[in-house]
Amino acid sequence: MESTSFPLWLLALAVLLAAVWALRIALRRKKRTDVSKITIKDIDRMEGGEFEDYLAVVFAALGYETYQTAKARDFGADLVVVDEEGHKWVIQAKRYSANLGLACVQEVYGAQVFYNADKSLVITSAEKVTEACWRLAAATNTHFLLREDLEELASLLRKGKLEEASWVVKTPQLPEPVKGKPALIEVEQSRKRVSAGDYFYK
After folding, report:
1. pLDDT in tens, 5-31
2. Which end of the chain is more exposed for a tag (fewer CB within 10 A), N or C?
3. How far is Cα 193 from Cα 202, in angstroms, rounded to an integer?
Protein backbone atom coordinates (compact mmCIF):
# COMPACT_ATOMS: atom_id res chain seq x y z
CA MET A 1 0.00 0.00 0.00
CA GLU A 2 1.43 3.38 -1.04
CA SER A 3 1.76 6.22 1.44
CA THR A 4 -0.10 9.39 0.46
CA SER A 5 1.60 11.56 3.10
CA PHE A 6 3.62 14.60 2.03
CA PRO A 7 7.40 13.91 2.12
CA LEU A 8 9.02 15.70 5.07
CA TRP A 9 12.06 16.79 3.07
CA LEU A 10 9.78 18.60 0.60
CA LEU A 11 7.99 20.36 3.43
CA ALA A 12 11.33 21.39 5.00
CA LEU A 13 12.53 22.71 1.63
CA ALA A 14 9.34 24.77 1.19
CA VAL A 15 9.72 26.26 4.69
CA LEU A 16 13.38 27.07 4.02
CA LEU A 17 12.58 28.76 0.68
CA ALA A 18 9.80 30.79 2.30
CA ALA A 19 12.17 31.92 5.07
CA VAL A 20 14.87 32.94 2.55
CA TRP A 21 12.28 34.84 0.48
CA ALA A 22 10.93 36.64 3.58
CA LEU A 23 14.47 37.58 4.67
CA ARG A 24 15.27 38.90 1.19
CA ILE A 25 12.13 41.08 1.18
CA ALA A 26 12.88 42.33 4.72
CA LEU A 27 16.43 43.29 3.74
CA ARG A 28 15.21 45.04 0.59
CA ARG A 29 12.62 47.00 2.60
CA LYS A 30 15.03 47.82 5.42
CA LYS A 31 15.27 51.55 5.76
CA ARG A 32 18.68 52.82 4.82
CA THR A 33 20.00 55.68 6.89
CA ASP A 34 23.59 55.79 5.62
CA VAL A 35 23.49 58.65 3.10
CA SER A 36 26.43 57.12 1.22
CA LYS A 37 24.22 54.14 0.32
CA ILE A 38 20.89 55.84 -0.50
CA THR A 39 19.40 55.38 -3.97
CA ILE A 40 16.48 57.13 -5.65
CA LYS A 41 14.36 54.08 -4.76
CA ASP A 42 15.19 54.63 -1.09
CA ILE A 43 14.22 58.29 -1.46
CA ASP A 44 10.91 57.24 -3.02
CA ARG A 45 10.14 55.23 0.14
CA MET A 46 10.92 58.11 2.52
CA GLU A 47 8.32 60.10 4.41
CA GLY A 48 8.50 63.90 4.09
CA GLY A 49 10.37 64.39 7.39
CA GLU A 50 12.86 61.65 6.51
CA PHE A 51 13.56 63.36 3.17
CA GLU A 52 14.24 66.62 5.01
CA ASP A 53 16.66 64.83 7.38
CA TYR A 54 18.39 63.16 4.43
CA LEU A 55 18.89 66.52 2.68
CA ALA A 56 20.14 68.12 5.91
CA VAL A 57 22.89 65.48 6.12
CA VAL A 58 23.70 65.89 2.40
CA PHE A 59 24.13 69.67 2.62
CA ALA A 60 26.16 69.46 5.84
CA ALA A 61 28.39 66.75 4.31
CA LEU A 62 28.97 69.00 1.29
CA GLY A 63 30.26 71.77 3.57
CA TYR A 64 27.20 74.01 3.89
CA GLU A 65 26.35 75.62 7.20
CA THR A 66 23.05 73.79 7.60
CA TYR A 67 20.00 74.46 9.75
CA GLN A 68 16.73 72.56 9.93
CA THR A 69 13.54 74.46 10.62
CA ALA A 70 10.88 73.25 13.05
CA LYS A 71 8.76 70.50 11.50
CA ALA A 72 5.65 72.59 12.17
CA ARG A 73 5.46 76.33 11.47
CA ASP A 74 8.50 76.34 9.22
CA PHE A 75 7.20 79.35 7.25
CA GLY A 76 7.81 77.57 3.96
CA ALA A 77 11.40 76.41 4.43
CA ASP A 78 12.57 72.95 5.50
CA LEU A 79 16.25 73.88 5.53
CA VAL A 80 18.26 77.08 5.67
CA VAL A 81 21.83 76.72 4.39
CA VAL A 82 24.72 79.10 3.94
CA ASP A 83 27.18 78.41 1.12
CA GLU A 84 30.94 79.08 1.11
CA GLU A 85 30.37 82.55 -0.35
CA GLY A 86 28.04 83.49 2.50
CA HIS A 87 24.81 83.30 0.50
CA LYS A 88 21.82 82.14 2.52
CA TRP A 89 19.47 79.68 0.78
CA VAL A 90 16.04 78.54 1.91
CA ILE A 91 15.14 75.04 0.76
CA GLN A 92 11.72 73.46 0.32
CA ALA A 93 11.96 69.63 0.23
CA LYS A 94 9.16 67.92 -1.70
CA ARG A 95 9.23 64.12 -1.63
CA TYR A 96 6.35 63.69 -4.07
CA SER A 97 5.11 61.04 -6.46
CA ALA A 98 2.49 63.38 -7.96
CA ASN A 99 3.13 66.42 -10.17
CA LEU A 100 4.70 69.35 -8.38
CA GLY A 101 2.41 72.39 -8.34
CA LEU A 102 2.97 76.07 -7.74
CA ALA A 103 2.29 75.94 -3.97
CA CYS A 104 5.91 74.93 -3.35
CA VAL A 105 7.16 78.09 -5.09
CA GLN A 106 4.71 80.26 -3.14
CA GLU A 107 5.91 78.71 0.11
CA VAL A 108 9.64 78.91 -0.56
CA TYR A 109 9.42 82.44 -1.94
CA GLY A 110 7.59 83.52 1.21
CA ALA A 111 10.28 81.73 3.25
CA GLN A 112 13.00 83.60 1.37
CA VAL A 113 11.49 86.87 2.55
CA PHE A 114 10.80 85.59 6.07
CA TYR A 115 14.32 84.23 6.64
CA ASN A 116 15.95 87.16 4.80
CA ALA A 117 17.65 84.72 2.42
CA ASP A 118 19.44 85.45 -0.84
CA LYS A 119 18.08 82.52 -2.83
CA SER A 120 15.33 79.91 -2.79
CA LEU A 121 15.56 76.27 -3.88
CA VAL A 122 12.98 73.51 -4.28
CA ILE A 123 14.32 69.94 -4.20
CA THR A 124 11.85 67.36 -5.44
CA SER A 125 11.53 63.69 -6.29
CA ALA A 126 8.41 64.42 -8.37
CA GLU A 127 8.36 63.11 -11.93
CA LYS A 128 6.87 66.30 -13.39
CA VAL A 129 6.49 69.98 -12.61
CA THR A 130 3.37 71.84 -13.73
CA GLU A 131 3.60 74.73 -16.17
CA ALA A 132 2.13 77.11 -13.58
CA CYS A 133 4.86 76.08 -11.15
CA TRP A 134 7.59 76.79 -13.75
CA ARG A 135 6.09 80.18 -14.62
CA LEU A 136 5.93 81.32 -11.01
CA ALA A 137 9.44 79.97 -10.36
CA ALA A 138 10.78 81.97 -13.30
CA ALA A 139 9.07 85.14 -12.04
CA THR A 140 10.38 84.67 -8.46
CA ASN A 141 13.88 83.44 -9.40
CA THR A 142 13.26 80.14 -7.60
CA HIS A 143 15.79 77.39 -8.35
CA PHE A 144 15.12 73.64 -8.64
CA LEU A 145 16.87 70.34 -8.14
CA LEU A 146 14.58 67.94 -10.00
CA ARG A 147 14.29 64.18 -9.83
CA GLU A 148 17.12 63.56 -12.30
CA ASP A 149 19.36 65.95 -10.31
CA LEU A 150 18.45 64.15 -7.08
CA GLU A 151 19.23 60.79 -8.68
CA GLU A 152 22.62 62.07 -9.89
CA LEU A 153 23.36 63.56 -6.47
CA ALA A 154 22.59 60.26 -4.70
CA SER A 155 24.72 58.34 -7.23
CA LEU A 156 27.72 60.65 -6.73
CA LEU A 157 27.39 60.40 -2.94
CA ARG A 158 27.38 56.60 -3.18
CA LYS A 159 30.64 56.80 -5.17
CA GLY A 160 32.18 59.20 -2.65
CA LYS A 161 32.49 61.96 -5.26
CA LEU A 162 31.73 64.89 -2.99
CA GLU A 163 33.19 67.54 -5.29
CA GLU A 164 30.95 66.47 -8.19
CA ALA A 165 27.97 66.14 -5.81
CA SER A 166 28.65 69.67 -4.63
CA TRP A 167 28.60 70.86 -8.24
CA VAL A 168 25.10 69.41 -8.72
CA VAL A 169 23.89 71.41 -5.72
CA LYS A 170 25.69 74.58 -6.83
CA THR A 171 24.14 74.50 -10.30
CA PRO A 172 20.40 74.07 -9.77
CA GLN A 173 17.96 74.59 -12.61
CA LEU A 174 16.41 78.02 -13.02
CA PRO A 175 13.32 78.17 -15.26
CA GLU A 176 13.43 80.50 -18.25
CA PRO A 177 11.13 83.52 -17.96
CA VAL A 178 7.93 83.18 -19.96
CA LYS A 179 6.80 86.13 -22.07
CA GLY A 180 3.49 87.66 -21.16
CA LYS A 181 1.66 87.91 -17.89
CA PRO A 182 -1.76 86.59 -16.94
CA ALA A 183 -4.55 88.90 -18.08
CA LEU A 184 -5.78 91.43 -15.55
CA ILE A 185 -9.42 92.48 -15.59
CA GLU A 186 -10.03 96.06 -14.57
CA VAL A 187 -12.80 96.66 -12.06
CA GLU A 188 -15.65 98.58 -13.72
CA GLN A 189 -15.97 102.12 -12.46
CA SER A 190 -18.17 105.02 -13.41
CA ARG A 191 -18.95 108.22 -11.57
CA LYS A 192 -21.82 106.63 -9.67
CA ARG A 193 -21.06 102.90 -9.59
CA VAL A 194 -18.21 100.43 -9.01
CA SER A 195 -18.92 96.82 -9.85
CA ALA A 196 -17.26 93.39 -10.08
CA GLY A 197 -19.30 90.30 -10.85
CA ASP A 198 -22.58 90.58 -8.93
CA TYR A 199 -21.16 93.07 -6.41
CA PHE A 200 -21.41 96.82 -6.71
CA TYR A 201 -21.11 100.07 -4.78
CA LYS A 202 -23.08 103.25 -5.55
Report:
1. 667 887 788 888 888 887 776 666 556
2. N
3. 5
Residues 6+ apart with CB under 8 A from 154: 38, 39, 40, 42, 43
Residue 2 pLDDT? 54
> CB atoms < 10 A from the CB of 141, how many?
13
Decide: 77 and 122 in contact? Cβ < 8 Å: no
Sequence-ordered list of residues with C-beta below 8 angstroms from that of 156, at least 6 positions apart, any chain: 162, 164, 165, 168
Query: Using CB atoms within 10 A of its CB, is residue 100 exposed (0-12), middle (13-18) or buried (19+)?
Result: buried
Tell me the backbone φ, ψ of residue 130, rounded to 5 degrees.
-70, 160
When pLDDT is cut at 50, 70 and 90, the band that residue 200 belongs to is confident
**The model's pTM:** 0.79
Edge-first strand listing for the sheet containing 65-68: 65-68, 79-82, 88-94, 119-124, 142-145
> Do 117 and 96 form a contact (C-beta atoms < 8 A)?
no
Q: Cβ of 108: how many Cβ atoms within 10 Å?
A: 27
Helices 162-170 + 48-61 axis angle, to 10: 110
